[in-house]
Write a structure and sequence with these properties.
This protein has 402 residues and is mainly β. The protein has one domain. It is 0% helix and 45% strand. The strands form eight sheets. A 13-stranded parallel sheet has the order 1-5-9-13-17-21-25-29-33-37-41-45-49, with no helix packed on it. Strands 12-16-20-24-28-32-36-40-44-48-52 form an eleven-stranded parallel sheet, with no helix packed on it.
């Protein structure tokens, strides 16, 4: 079935579906449809159960809407999108391909669930927020709305978010809640903040597992992934994830956030670049208000990242708190022209910096000023460094403290 060239002044440019529970959309083409409001291709008013809901093998291209260029799911949706779907060249203000409406009292959960032999593709979609996918509430997106998003076996390439706010963006995904991304590739996506993923609200854990994020870029902050600015969030990067070759104009070539925790295990952040601080990981916002803790756990690798600005530091990591707890964790071969070639620790507002290195390797990093491996700004407060002697750069000035 091909559905093309349709328009709606309200919702559902091609098809408006009141009850999506028994909907089957399979091997169809939705092209060049438009809605003045939501769902350029499909609008689902209700999807309360995945039983009977089927969406596989479809192509959505050149559809437009204010929210959800291709598909829009309204409040309290519970839906699973299957594999083999392609979303390309769709546009919207919120969610170039897909938008999911959610609130604190009507939480939506949408799974984009491909498989190893039937992946989903999101390419060249554009939106103000969430170049490919947006979850949350477009009218209150800065005030802590909630949603749940799971994405498996999908590829996001060259999607773009165009909003230039201090906090928002998300070239591939803009999430107003928790997300769980696994076996996903994100390549060449762009945004002002969060070249690939931007999480703007909600507490709770999010995950990036067994995925590859390469060549994404942010004009300002977080070349690949941005953490929430208005709620404390935990991000777990694990299961062989590679975040490499991403760039940020200001802070965090790979990752950046305003407050929260970043846990890395069995994964690598390498070859990322930031203009000002944090070649791999940095924090965003006014320095004394930030609150970012980094945990390097088993087989966490921060390698060959760099900061290009000649005044600032943290070639590998720029954070408020750092914990290295595994013998197999390492911070190596990172560079910056300022202080802290490997690690630069800076205090948050009214807080004491904390660094605990009980294992692992911090080695062969290079700073342009001082602290080849690590520099700490204590702001006149006490701090502790456990087993600082394990930093084996080979020169006595490898750790610089201010």
């Amino acid at each position: 079935m091909t559905v093309s060239g349709n328009t709606a002044t309200q919702n559902g440019g091609a098809i408006y579906i009141q009850d999506g529970n028994k909907t089957v959309v399979r091997d169809s083409i939705f092209k060049n449809n438009s809605s003045s409001l939501s769902g350029g291709g499909l609008y689902f008013a209700t999807v309360s159960s995945t039983d009977g809901f089927v969406m596989t093998g479809n192509t959505f291209s050149e559809n437009t809407a204010a929210s959800g260029g291709a598909i829009y799911f309204d409040l309290n949706s519970q839906a699973t999108i299957g594999g083999g779907n392609t979303f390309s060249d769709n546009t919207a203000s919120y969610g170039g391909a897909i938008a999911v409406n959610s609130s604190q009292t009507a939480v939506s959960r949408v799974d984009i669930q491909g498989s190893a032999d039937s992946r989903n593709t999101f390419k060249d979609n554009t939106a103000t927020l969430g170049g490919a996918v947006f979850t949350g509430n477009s009218t209150t997106y800065a005030n802590g709305t909630y949603a749940e998003l799971k994405v498996e076996y999908s590829d996001f390439e060259a999607n773009a978010a165009t909003y230039t706010s201090y906090y928002h963006g998300g070239g591939a995904i803009c999430s107003g809640g928790t997300y769980d991304v696994s076996h996903v590739t994100m390549t060449g996506n762009t945004a002002y903040n969060g070249g690939a993923i931007n999480a703007y609200a909600a507490t709770g854990p999010s995950y990036i597992r067994a995925s590859t994020l390469t060549g994404n870029s942010a004009t300002s902050v977080a070349g690949a992934v941005y953490l929430s600015h208005n709620a404390r969030r935990q991000l777990y990067i694990t299961e062989g994830t590679l975040i490499s070759g991403n760039t940020a104009g200001s802070k965090g070539g790979a990752l950046a956030g305003y407050r929260g925790e970043i846990h890395i295990s069995d994964s690598e952040l390498s070859g990322n670049t930031a203009g000002d601080v944090g070649g791999a990981i940095g924090f965003h916002g006014y320095d004394y208000e930030a609150d970012i803790a980094v945990y390097l756990e088993d087989n966490a690798v921060i390698d060959s990242n760099r900061v290009t600005n000649n005044k600032n530091g943290g070639g590998g990591i720029y954070a408020n708190y750092l914990y290295i707890t595994s013998e197999s964790a390492r911070v190596t071969n990172n560079t910056c022209a300022g202080p802290g070639g490997g690690i630069c620790i800076y205090p948050g507002k009214d807080k004491v910096v904390e660094v605990k290195i009980t294992a692992g390797t911090v080695y062969n990093n290079q700073a342009g000023t001082y602290g080849n491996d690590m520099a700490i700004y204590s702001n006149g407060k006490d701090f502790s460094v456990a087993k600082a002697s394990d930093m084996t750069n080979g020169d006595e000035g490898s750790a610089g403290y201010d």
